[in-house]
Amino acid sequence: MKIISYNVNGIRAAMRKGFIEWLMAANPDVICLQETKANFDQVEIEEIEKAGYPYHYWYSAVKKGYSGVAILSKIKPNHVEYGTGIEYMDAEGRNLRLDFDDARLPAGQVSVMSLYLPSGTNIDRLEHKFTYMADFQKYVDNLKKENPNLVICGDYNICHEAIDIHDPVRNKNVSGFLPVERKWLDGFMKSGFIDSFRHFNKEPDNYTWWSYRANSRNNNKGWRIDYNLVSEPLLKNLKRAVILPEAMHSDHCPHLVELEF
């Protein structure tokens, strides 16, 4: 099962930049999108279906042109979960989950979530982010009891360690690399998740987001803030995980995890 996660920073803009052609070449079984910035009726759905994704699910924010997540799949899910049931989270369209039956797994299914965790662009949004992180941890702690085979793909808006950011010293007081954010992400991983990319790759200079300023992408001055976190029961099923920086439809790039059953 090949899963890709991608913050597209606007699905309509990404499609104008060749997203569909790239998707057909990459050919994942499932792709989780974040920051779609569009309602279902604003997207050229027929292009997605022609690319081989008959099952596609969209969860948009109440505010138009803001946030939003989607999952496109070649495989029909047996259940789709829109949101978390927590009202303030769901108003921003940040969580969408598909459950797939799989008799080869002890629990009988694997669940794939697309997550778009808030950024902390100012004091108010930083407090919102902290509240979200705490509530999301509780939500996932409960979810894992029923769905132990869980893959949470998405933009976490946090660099985990110094290796995940191009300049850890000068960014130590910037949201996305604050000690309290990093501590939360570290605790979240230790609550039963594997950072799939770091499971296979311990090298520096691997990033998933670059500022549009100062030619950051060409100079590879980036941040690794996007993750495919895989729950520990799926450890034996991990086959590979890579970042795909050659895709240029967004200020983020896609990242892939492959599970073998």
Low-confidence stretches: none
Main sheet overview = 6 strands, mixed
- Tally of helical runs: 7
Radius of gyration: 17 Å
Q: Please tell me the CATH architecture by its name.
A: 4-Layer Sandwich
The whole-number mean of residue pLDDT values reads 96
**If you consult CATH, what is the topology?**
Deoxyribonuclease I, Chain A
Question: Any descriptors?
Answer:
261 residues; alpha+beta; Deoxyribonuclease I, Chain A; six-stranded mixed beta sheet; 7 helices; globular
Characterise the protein shown here.
By secondary structure, the protein is α+β, with helices and mostly antiparallel strands. It has a single domain (2-259), classed as Endonuclease/exonuclease/phosphatase (Deoxyribonuclease I, Chain A, 4-Layer Sandwich). It has 7 helices and 14 strands. The chain has helices at residues 11-16, 19-26, 45-50, 87-90, 123-146, 179-190, 196-200; strands at 2-7, 30-34, 55-59, 69-73, 79-82, 95-101, 109-116, 150-155, 193-195, 209-210, 222-223, 226-231, 238-243, 255-259. The strands form 3 sheets. Strands 3-4-2-1-14-13 form a 6-stranded mixed beta sheet. The longest helix has 24 residues, at 123-146. The radius of gyration is 17 Å and the shape is globular. The mean pLDDT is 96.
Short note summarizing the structure:
Helix content is 25%, strand content 27%. With 261 residues, it is of the alpha+beta class. The protein has one domain: 4-Layer Sandwich (Deoxyribonuclease I, Chain A), CATH 3.60.10.10.
